[in-house]
TrEMBL record:
Coiled coil: none annotated. This is Collagen triple helix repeat (20 copies). Pfam families: Collagen. Residues 125-149, 167-189, 243-278 are annotated as: Disordered. One of its GO terms (cellular component) is extracellular matrix. It comes from the Bacteria. It comes from Coprococcus eutactus. Residues 134-145, 176-189 have a biased composition (Low complexity). Transmembrane segments: none annotated.
Amino acid sequence: MATIKAADQVTVLDVSDAYNVVLSSEAYTFLGDTQGAAAGSKCTTDAAAYCGNNMCSVVTVDAKAIVCPTGVTAAVSNSGTSKVTITFTLTAKLTTACEATIPVVVDGVTINKKFSFAVAKTGATGAKGDKGDQGVQGPQGPQGVSPTVSVTKANGVTTITITDKDGTHTQTVKDGTNGTPGTPGTNGKTPYFHVKYSNDGGKTFTSNSGEDVGMYIGTCTDYNPADPATVGAYTWARIKGETGAKGDKGATGETGPQGEKGATGATGPQGPQGNAGADALTLTITSSAGIIFKNNTGSTVLTAHVFKGSAEQTISSTGVVSGIGTVKWYAGGVYQKSSNTYAVGAGDVPNSLAITCQLEA
């Protein structure tokens, strides 16, 4: 099996101008009422075609081939010329957006174009507007009369006099007789709250006549300001609990996180320099007339160049590079010839063709 020492590849293309169909307009909006657009409404569009940058002289549209939505018909004029006119007519009220498909034929190629219809309906009556702003304040009215009230009392009669805009009004009221005084209430008593402390459940007071805080508290409420001197006068309650038992030993804690990584050690000494490598072999392809053909015309010559290091090597007409190997050409993966050049014509390229040049030993 041959050893490939170097290789290069190019792709040769043969392209053709594309057909493009354009419509003078691709959509139309019919004006309608609140329900939709009325039957009988019409719109038109023109169809033209281009091959590359060149306008096609013959464009064909068959009205019967146009796919129209329900309630729309199509008519065609000037078919077979460079510009075809298509007229759409509504045969029923159009209520929603829709589209038609127009097959346009150019040089035997059919290209479908879409034409869209829309309806601009009259809007419904709007909601009642907001309440208007408050009007300008009217002029100030005449100055009013402030009423006055006077009260007098004489000989057991109270006289009330009111003067307002309607005049003076007087009303008299006789004073009432005082009622019988009530029975005096019982004298009140002042309650006193007493607190003492004990360490034996209320059998005896703590020191300082029970004023020092102890394990029990005694309370008493009476009407005497002085504290009762007997323990029996108090109600006792324990306020200090006994010492609890010692708790169990807690569980062992989790292992702590790993410590930080130590510093990187110093860089070791550089090793000795290795032996010099052999000069590299490279292969490149150049073209005399590019690698793109148009409309199945044109040709080019591909030339191989072999370099050892930076020095270009001589390639014989049979592809031999002295002391290195042989240059071989492949088209589409199939071996063609051994040579320093390879000629390609547009007829050799269906659409695209990968051409590989290899230096083999």
